[in-house]
Amino acid sequence: MNYNWNWGIYFEPSPEGVGTYADMLLSGLQWTVATALSSWVIAFFLGSLIGVMRTLPSKAAQAFGTAYVELFRNIPLLVQMFLWYFVVPELLPESLGTRLKQLPNAPFVTAVVCLGLFTASRVAEQVRAGIQALPRGQGMAGTALGLTVAQTYRHVLLPNAYRIILPPLTSEFLNNLKNTSVALTIGLLELTARARAMQEFSFQVFEAFTAATILYVLINVVVIVLATWLERTVAVPGTR
Amino acid sequence: MFANFDFGVIASSLPYLFGQGMVFTVTLTALAAGMGVVLGTLIALMRLSGIPGVTHLAKGYVELMRSLPLVLVIFWFYFLVPYIGAWATRSSTPMQVGAFPSALITFTLFEAAFFAEIMRAGIQSIAKGQTAAAQALGLTYWQTMGSIVLPQAFRNMLPLLLTQTIVLFQDTSLVYVLSLTDFLGAASKVAQRDGRLVEMYLFAAVVYFAVCFAASFLVRRLHSRVAIIR
Questions:
Q1: Is residue A8 part of a domain?
Q2: Nearest CB to B71: which of A73, A182, A217?
Q3: In which element (H, E) is residue A220 found?
Q4: Which residues of chain A have a CB within 8 Å of the CB of B197?
Q5: What domains sit in chain B, N to C, each tagged with a CATH number?
Q6: Domain that holds residue A145
Q7: What is the pLDDT of residue B195?
Q8: Which CATH number belongs to the domain containing residue A101 in this structure?
Q9: Single pTM value for the model
Q10: Which residues form the ABC transmembrane type-1 domain (chain B) (predicted)?
């Protein structure tokens, strides 16, 4: 095997003019983290809303929740990315569509919206499972105490459900983080895109991808450590 | 909003989209799923073997694959496979590997990690007493696994394995980053040639939705039929 290893490549200046290859990868890491966190905000709140809708007595709310989940789960993320980036601006009224296309950070905004709505369908399934895993008596007890439906969810059901689903939510968060790499297809300069660019500029394929791999593994470890800490902090004393 | 929607471009590209694109996607999905399940089962057996080095190797492999984005793994193997080929054949120049074999190797190895986790759960769901009974009858390890544990594990995990295969079907669209002509790649090529992005991407979305929705409906039906009432 003749491959010219050059582990010093990270400290050589990148052809972009400013900084080294290491700076390039780190800026990619920042975009990855920024995209993952921003889209998670949408995914968490919208996903919780949809998940709750699927457990409400109202048939219309259930149908809407089910339709949302099925729609976003059965179309590949990459196709959804293209739909938001290429198709939606064309279908909107002309002035609005043009404004969308001229956004200074169009790939970032699109990726955040797309990932947020996509991951929301997965969060919704977890939230629904969490609520349904609770004993039926809890909701009834809330009603018996005179709480409204909204109050029952806010003070009784959701606090318990979130504690149950914390581990699967962590893995959805990690999936969301990994899925940010799909946004390289619409031009977001996140970590995988930067590693790919570094490989194209320097021909040091394995160094570039090794660095990206290590960075992804590191973020995973950090997230898992934080999630374990969170799980212990919010655990109700006396349970498990 | 749909005023100048052109259905003609979809109709005229159907043979290309399905004859080449969908055939590629389905072939890749089927082969990668089949090989992935076999490899995944082996990894699950390794992980449950209790032999220190082997268990850790399997665990490390699964954890590594699960913490990396598929796009990065696709790039890794695209560049790595020719070197592995060269090393295996003792040749001094990187081996020429076609796009399809490269994608197939990538998806098989990547999905094997996920199938391994499913099979591990399946094997662990079989009561310990069954393995003990098999050993008491004098069956060897491979006989126990082959005729007692694995058949039941497969049956219990079939719905999950199929659901994972639907995910794999959707994930194969990511070969787009290597410019291969899978279903989405074909749609994208027509879209760019004819300047008809709206029509082609919407059509691709509708087809993926129809296939995955129907498939997951069938899996749910199957699940209720094969479920063993305990």
A1: no
A2: A182
A3: helix A205-234
A4: 82, 86-87, 90
A5: 8-226 (1.10.3720.10)
A6: 17-234
A7: 85
A8: 1.10.3720.10
A9: 0.91
A10: 22-219
